[in-house]
């Protein structure tokens, strides 16, 4: 990816589908045009419609040094060569589920060349976090209005994973306002969070991830809306790894069927830890190994890695074993404190395309989690479930569907659940 803008967009446009080109042109025309109005756009579309792909095309066109790109999680940010929202805007991170203190740390320096700010996987960004982004952008350029007058494009799918223990980006802070609106039904936009109504809407429609298995794509659209047919249940039954939730059976199947970037998706971090450690692996930061340094006997001495959450370069050295006993320590070699992890939470998988997934399913599950997990793969053959609980069901979030339909109506599209 070049850091300078490409002025002839024809080559970039060639790699995009017609709906991606429509949005690409709309954004670039507004940024490059004579209008002084900043872009305020929310680009949605179901999983696999190439939202992240379009982001990389926009970065190429505008030039990496002229765009800020971010996402709520490190893995999602890495996907679009960006930073986490926290890292980009220097927001304090909440620890152990406690709320942070709401302070805004020093904002990064912003040159005059900043043309566009992009936030991917917006479904996971809470209304509170979005308020902070607004303050941070206004701090870059005070006196220029909302979001500092910068162009801002949001990408995501409101039917994928919502923010953890927080309000949706479109949800109102004060229940009382909702009550008032119920009594005096005014413009529906008043329901929304403070900044959300500033955004116009676009939707991508071509599924690029499951385009070779349209039956699977249709199945996913049912699941996205919380509908699981009898045929779907039969299919899920046939994709079970084991009759009982046995980590060993899952691990064995994983080793046999897992390809390239396969993942076991689980609900909670502690389950991921358990699964990883049972298999002799450990959970931790996800890192990309950039360089393996060896000595003259080809023993690995150290690794240069980039954690996906921070994108810093880190060197990992061998450590002495912790076991007690001097003799035992002398016998054991210093070890590298890094092992591959293959179970992650559904949250960490959002935004990725994976070769194979193994879904851990509770008896009742949010449609957003199930849909996000299942839609990571390209075809039915790449999807497994660790076990299908009796009476398995998924439930849809009505607020997200309602907001989706409201947005679609603004561009004359029918409700998704019609
Ligand atoms: N125009 C395109 N031509 C070829 N491949 C494409 C195109 N657009 C997207 N893809 C591919 O389709 C897959 C899904 O794309 P992408 O991850 O951008 O979708 P997404 O809408 O961001 O999905 P999600 O909502 O799940 O994050 C990726 O493998 C991507 O490379």
TrEMBL record:
Catalytic activity: ATP + H2O = ADP + phosphate + H(+)
EC number(s) stated in the UniProt entry for this protein: 5.6.2.3
Superkingdom of origin: Eukaryota
Signal peptide extent: none
Domain DNA helicase Pif1-like DEAD-box helicase: 16-165
GO terms, biological process: DNA recombination; DNA repair; telomere maintenance
Uppermost EC category: isomerase
Transmembrane segments: 177-196
Cofactor(s) it depends on: Mg(2+)
Keyword NADP: no
Alphabetic keyword roster: ATP-binding, DNA damage, DNA recombination, DNA repair, Helicase, Hydrolase, Membrane, Nucleotide-binding, Transmembrane, Transmembrane helix
GO molecular-function terms, A-Z: 5'-3' DNA helicase activity; ATP binding; ATP hydrolysis activity
Family: Belongs to the helicase family.
Protein's name in the database: ATP-dependent DNA helicase
Protein's organism: Caenorhabditis remanei (Caenorhabditis vulgaris)
